[in-house]
């Protein structure tokens, strides 16, 4: 097998046929545009809006965090336009993995598929640890105190009620929420989507309440200057701080691309996918900017470097009861993020498995529920284990770099397919090609450049593991390689 076969492509016709199969590998087409948009909103609004807003304002951008959200949102809109064209043209479940297979070939597709594990599985694990923190805090407010040894990662030093220290055994709440949502996803996409829709409505109500109530208490003098003077170090206020803030809050947008993994279960993907992707992005960007504006107008930005900045903003208003509501909203918001990321990971593995690069168990669909149940259960178990046993704070940057890498390839796929398959019908077309995809690539690369060196090192190690799996398993069993032989 020559090295050139690494670039074997799947034709658009073959991809389209794989998305319309019947039998044990067929997914139910049960999602409309509202549910798909809700998946996007559910994936985006979570820990980012409830935590990162304050941290980025205090450490990097000041009130200019509003501009940081605009910059990060603009980069995502460029990428979202590219996702919309590809998802409408190639309505299957593989997201950027599938798009890369159709353009850059099999090896690049495998690399991006492996890379997406950082975003989906690791992202879900990270979010579940945040969920655990809010859940423990909320239970403590009502007099229920869980043992500290069962609410932190294995080996973490925790303080007991008597002041003594011990080592944590396992983060039970984090593992619990992952397993509970996995059970729900195994039972059915339609049922999971309904629950997600309800939770999205709850957290949107909480976020809107904060904006509408808080806006009457905003002190506009706290916005001056909008961009604080730089301290002399890159990224500490000034315009470089606004850019660094954009790189940090980019994590808050991670999850919108999970919308594209629902393409194979959309009733009318050519119409519903662009609505879901772009609608969720624009809605969440507007909410992010509004929350940042209200928050920095309520509390001096240097005081926002706390785990619960929105609750601190509520305290500034003087409504103590609303703090509990905010915690419930945060808990609900993070729940939908975990749900969407677990869902997206199983759909990507589903598609990779159908191509022969992973074992067939990942693409086996339950005869009654119409979901890839074995894949979903295995993913849920692994994510629950990670969430309960491993401190995952350092993986946040890995999630960001993995996602940005995927976004670069999606934009490149649009440019490639416009030349290689110019005559293919496109229900949705990115305007301003090649400018929009190129801008998306440049903005993502700029944000990647702002991440620390050790994050790049971890990415290289992770990718090396994926390359070994491909050459020792996937390449030998690839259906495309067998057809090309």
From TrEMBL:
Compartmental location: Membrane
Pfam families: AA_permease_2
InterPro entries, alphabetized: AA/rel_permease1
Gene Ontology MF terms: amino acid transmembrane transporter activity
Any one annotated GO CC term: membrane
Keywords from the UniProt entry: Membrane, Transmembrane, Transmembrane helix, Transport
Main location (coarse class): membrane
Entries under PANTHER family matching the protein: CATIONIC AMINO ACID TRANSPORTER 4 (PTHR43243:SF4), INNER MEMBRANE TRANSPORTER YGJI-RELATED (PTHR43243)
Name of the protein in question: Amino acid permease
Organism of this sequence: Hansschlegelia zhihuaiae
